[in-house]
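Predict structure. Chain length: 519.
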Amino acid sequence: MIELYEKILNEQGLTGGFLEIYEGKDFKAEIDMEKWKITAVYPSFYNEKKVKIILRDMILHEISHWKLCPYDILKAYELVDTAYPYFRNLDDALYITNAFEDLIVNSWNAYKNPPYEGIIEFYKNEVKKGYDSFYYFFVILNLKLMDKENLITVLIPQKYRKKVKILKKDANDLLKEWKLPSEKEEKIEFLINSSHWIKMLKVFIQKAKKYFRSKKHNLSVFEPYFEEKVREGEEIMRYIEYSSKKGKKVSFMNNFDFLDRYYESLTPYIEIKAEDVNNFEIPLIRYGKEEFDVNNHQFHEINFRRIFYDKNSPFKNNINFYVSPFKQGLRVPSGDKKFFPDLMIVLDTSGSMTAGRAEPFLNWGNKYHNALISIYAILKYLKRKRIAHMIRYSLVCFSSGTKTTGWLYYHELNKLKRMLFTPEQESTHLKTRIIKELLRNRRVMFILITDSEIYNFNKIKKELIDILDKNYSFFFQMGMERGQGFKHIAERVNYIIVKNPSDLVRAVIDVTGRVYDNI
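Prediction complete.
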């Protein structure tokens, strides 16, 4: 068997790898692409000569899954993602995707690695186990694609011939819809072209779904390597990034899992570039950009590497420069004892804050989208700094009502995330009473993110300023203009206007780093 394996590897232009062969109750095989290991199982009672023939083709089959179909992780996920909406069951989507991939690799191997008789022997062994309309349909398709249609009568028991007649008709209809070229080599080139697979898979499912049952025969393998990755969740981040860039949600993930991993994928780890720091004031933070205005800026603030045309420029030749808009140090109270403060995030979830759609699969716009990225960035930063498990967390969301998660330990953060993903999207009222109860006998890092007016601000401003004064507090407002009444906040605490929502994450992670790095 080892000699056979080495011969196949040489013929396929591959080197290295491992082969493990075991006796068992049935024929099975799988390939582990990370370890480049093929595991094969064969029944001990089987004829030795046939065992070698079957194992040869099963090994070729496994190698072809890696070399040909699905070939890479993104295509594997995309095929499962296409199949899942037809079944709403991941096991079924994985199985039928595997069956489709088998059609491709078997067609290829029958053409490139003849005689490829072992796979026929494998199917002959499987159909003896009893009638399964989907599996028989699958075997008939394989035989037609491998130009071995004459073997249908050999493989299918006599008592199922009437049923098989209907299956053959559906198989012929499917192949017509696939519009395969008639010339053999062109047909194979068409089949292995991955740009056709999504459309072909949909046709395959539409034809095969009526035959599908929960009890399934073995395909020629266990679950392939890529399908195991889908089930285990490994490498799923790559596909989420790929899918979201195309404006699509991953169908086989529930909404929470998708959004959670999606925002994780958007959250880079941002290093803090601190200047000289003392316990009483956080140093200057600069982020974003705005046009130089001689009435509002100093010349030393100019970034001379950024030049643009501006007909109203105070400089010659209509050129102007950008400056970083954030110009003040940040006040942070210091305590007698060094400790890591708990984190409270107060988030505006009103209609104006969540308006629009940042992506087709999101129910909120850019402001709220960037607020979520910022919160995920804080959590990632604290985890990387190994602080995350040492503190507790509280989220307060306000719109027409005010709700909170209460105080959570790190392992309970899914509760916080679920609240983030269900914004109320109505008016803007904040109940400070809830916050005061949560902050009793605590000094915390306090981050408030809003986009405009808090309608009951005049009623709560005294209590809110008192809360902000006593904690490591930062009041972020997204928008071009300061909200009316917020000047009282700006005079007392760290009030930060973020004109461009995408600048929020940089500003928020900067203040987070300076608090937790320098206490």
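Summary: Residues 248 and 361 are 6 Å apart (CA to CA).
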